[in-house]
Design goal:
The chain is about 45% helix and about 10% strand. The protein is an alpha/beta fold. It has one domain: TIM Barrel, CATH 3.20.20. An 8-stranded parallel beta sheet has the order 1-8-7-6-5-4-3-2. Helix 5 runs parallel beside helix 13 and helix 12 crosses helix 13. The structure holds zinc ion.
Length: about 375
């Protein structure tokens, strides 16, 4: 493409983006989750726990989002970073802010406070950017298929968190990272009781079945029957070990399908980020890269873009990245879908690089030296 043509195309595109932003701020209510999915795709940035653990604001192991109470400004900024990069959804940072986890770190008394604060922060960002405000519930870690008392306790945990999300005015609820389809089913029922749209995603471990042994298609049908509006996968698996599961799920359900892998290079032999091993470095705690030594496995933005394209081709319309995601990954998701979020203004242009570039203002003394770099 000629440069001037590319420039005018980019200009027209940025005008369209500006027009959309304007209509969003003047419209009475931005489109809801289901309207957006009917019109195209929805991008959701997840993985805030890993980001704040790296930055030193919460602890690996317990993985409780204490940063919500201690540094709400930082949580707001991370939400804004992800929206800037293209996320359509601001997910309240209530992952693992549930009764069981807070009990483990001795902060059960802060349960309601942390939930309401996380919801308030997410709502503030969503309402000021025309994005969706999502409540969030997740795996409880107390569900035991053999113990019906735990099913009741799980449901109580879901109901209390969903209640706070409804109070806050959430547009939809995301229920995520379940290993048991039956626990996800309880979550779906709890959400649907409120009438809000439900996004329900499963964490798939080493085997291609749920923890109770359901094939992906059966799992999808069960959650769809329970009322889930979007069914899919999040976390645990990297792009290339999540992709094959998507085909089976897409074929089995009529509802929308979600795909939010972790941005790590998992393989058929080591399909989950917990099972990755690092032959190049010893001395990691427990000799297991998960969760604090995964750095050498991080996918680059181009891989995430390629995964997004392939997942979209399969038919997944709710797309994003989970634990390990940075804003550059989310921008790659957006650009793979043909979008131009505000962060795309700074997408790479190596023509301006002092040594590798082609710009005519560059010094030949440097461009001639590129082979020596
Ligand atoms: Zn995750």
């Amino acid at each position: 493409m000629a440069k001037s043509k590319a420039k005018s195309k980019a200009k027209a595109k940025s005008k369209r983006v500006a027009a959309t932003a304007k209509s969003r701020t003047t419209a009475a209510k931005p489109a809801g989750l289901l309207e957006r999915l009917a019109a195209g795709s929805v991008i959701c940035a997840e993985g805030y726990l890993f980001e704040f653990e790296r930055r030193g604001y919460l602890q690996a192991g317990a993985f409780v989002p204490e940063v919500v109470l201690e540094h709400p400004d930082l949580v707001e900024m991370l939400h804004r970073d992800f929206v800037h990069a293209g996320s359509d959804v601001v997910e309240a940072f209530t992952y693992y802010a549930h009764r069981e986890k807070l009990r483990i770190i001795g902060r059960e008394k802060d349960l309601e406070k942390i939930n309401r604060q996380a919801l308030r922060i997410a709502k503030k960002v969503a309402r000021s950017t025309g994005t969706l405000f999502a409540g969030n519930i997740c795996n409880t870690n107390i569900y035991d298929p053999a113990d019906p008392a735990t099913h009741k306790a799980v449901r109580r945990m879901f109901d209390e968190q969903i209640g706070w999300a409804v109070d806050a005015g959430a547009d939809c609820i995301i229920a995520e990272t379940f290993s048991y389809a039956a626990e996800a089913e309880l979550a779906t029922q709890a959400i649907k009781k409120t009438g809000l749209p439900a996004v329900v995603t499963m964490a798939m471990h080493k085997t291609d079945t749920t923890r109770e042994g359901l094939a992906v298609g059966e799992m999808g049908k069960r959650l769809e029957a329970a009322g889930a509006d979007v069914v899919g996968f999040n976390c645990i698996r990297g792009p290339w070990t999540m992709l094959p599961l998507l085909k089976d799920l897409r074929a089995a359900v009529k509802c929308h399908v979600a795909a939010l892998p972790v941005p790590y290079r998992t393989t058929p032999a080591e399909p989950t980020f917990q099972s990755l091993t690092d032959p190049n470095w010893t001395g990691i705690p427990d000799n297991r890269p998960f969760p604090t030594a995964l750095d050498p496995f991080v996918c680059n933005r181009y891989e995430i873009g390629e995964f997004t394209k392939q997942a979209h081709e399969i038919g997944a319309r709710y797309l994003g990245v989970c634990c390990g995601a940075g804003p550059h990954h989310i921008r790659a998701v957006a650009e793979a879908l043909g979008r131009h979020p505000p962060a795309s203004r700074y997408s790479p242009d190596m023509s301006k690089h002092a040594f590798f570039g082609t710009n005519k203002l560059l010094k030949p003394v440097n461009t001639g030296y590129r082979q020596q770099l």
